[in-house]
Specification:
Elements: H1 4-46, E1 50-51, H2 52-56, E2 70-77, E3 83-90, E4 93-103, E5 109-118, E6 136-144, E7 161-162, H3 167-174, E8 178-189, H4 209-238
Parallel strand pairs: 1-2, 3-7, 5-8
Antiparallel strand pairs: 2-4, 2-6, 3-4, 4-5, 6-8
Organism: Kribbella alba
Transmembrane segments: 210-230
Keywords: Cell membrane, Membrane, Transmembrane, Transmembrane helix
């Protein structure tokens, strides 16, 4: 067992088991983070509606602590800088979301997701978009953080379309001073067009992280158990079996050697005698 090949194999298996344990711990860490986030979400959902500036403050950044808070804001839509958000899916229905900047009294603005338009066929753009109300509008809705796509592009509007709703990206592309974040419409005065569909609330559960952690821990135990099992098999395979005499079956003595030059006396009836006579029984 102490040959280099076995040692390398054992080290690789132990390394894989360690990786599985770390992945299981990572899933438990994500579970803890999700529980904390769910607690903040429940608190924000239960909080009463408040003016946008009172919730976000002068930083004008919608952070984790503000996500799903109900905010009230009054301003005027700038329909000339409206953006269609492509590749959206709401309750297994593909479609588009329409985002329009709402300009506030101080000249700043916030992106308002006015609603969802289901796709009717294979069109790459909405067949028709309800016009934004003119004049002063009061919107009550849920605050959401700016969407991040990692290394994926799509947060900056191009030709009036985008894939993500991102306040800073929209701000630079549209030439507006916008909040970092956006608002989804729950209620609006004047009322929103009925063609728009609403959005479901957040998913508040623990997710699959605990079961993923159990799976990784099981894989680690499986790897270590396999290493122990095959190690025992190798050790047992190197030991001679009990009662097995060298060169013979268990309990049987070695056959006596036949002297060189001795005649074969085990003649059969079908074998002739060396002198031509019949064979012996």
């Amino acid at each position: 067992m102490l040959n280099p090949r076995w040692i390398v194999t054992a080290l690789v298996i132990l390394l894989l088991a360690g990786v599985c344990v770390e992945l299981g711990r990572w899933q438990l860490h994500r579970l803890d983070e999700r529980k904390v986030r769910n607690g903040v979400t429940r608190t924000n959902l239960a909080a009463p509606a408040a003016p946008l500036a009172d919730i976000v403050g002068p930083q004008r950044v919608v952070g984790d602590q503000h996500d799903w808070r109900t905010a009230v804001v009054t301003g005027r839509y700038d329909a000339t800088k409206q953006v269609v958000i492509r590749y959206r899916n709401v309750q297994d229905r593909p479609g588009f979301e329409i985002v329009t900047p709402l300009i506030l009294a101080d000249g700043t603005g916030i992106l308002v997701d006015r609603g969802f338009l289901a796709r009717q066929g294979a069109e790459l753009a909405p067949l028709s978009v309800p016009a934004a109300p003119s004049g002063e509008v009061t919107v009550t809705g849920r605050l959401r953080r700016s969407e991040q796509g990692g290394h994926t592009s799509g947060g900056k509007p191009t030709d009036g379309t985008a894939r993500l709703i991102n306040g800073p990206e929209f701000s630079s592309a549209l030439g507006l001073s916008l909040y970092d974040g956006y608002l989804t419409v729950d209620r609006q005065q004047p009322v929103a067009d009925p063609a728009f569909g609403g959005f479901p609330g957040p998913e508040i559960d623990d997710g699959p992280h605990f079961f993923y952690a159990l799976q990784w821990f099981f894989f680690a135990l499986l790897a270590i158990g396999g290493l122990v099992y095959f190690s025992r098999q190798d050790v047992q395979g190197d030991k001679p079996k009990e009662g097995l005499a060298p060169g013979g079956a268990a309990g049987e003595p070695d056959p006596e050697p036949v002297p060189a030059g001795s005649a074969d006396r085990g003649l059969r009836t079908d074998r002739g005698h060396p002198d031509g006579g019949p064979g012996l029984d």
